[in-house]
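Good day; I would like, with your permission, to put a structural problem before you. The record follows directly beneath this note:
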Amino acid sequence: MTTDTDRQPASRTRWPARVYATGSEPDYRFTLANERTFLAWLRTSLALVVAAVALHALATDYSTIVVQVVAGTIVVLGAGGALLAWVRWSANERAIRCGEPLVGFRSGAVACAALVVVAVAAAALLVLR
């Protein structure tokens, strides 16, 4: 039977240790809000990947190479969004735990710009059809 004295500190048993081994345990509401934001980014990334699969499967009236390039770009954006979600979650969680300001949002602006370019390309495909 495990007693309270046998348990390891939460910072040693939680992963990633790089995040949880710093600072002190914050108010759980901040951690849960950061987690919800992470999950929202993941949902968006998943939606991008699904959109790319749908485009590839349903866009039969267009040149194969054009569809593959646009769908591939959307998949890369989805993967990049998931990676960005992880990086932002861990950086924000560390900042919350250390009582520091949250990280800036420059990477979000880059992701937004890339998505606008892909959206314009997709719109051009519809118009040129």
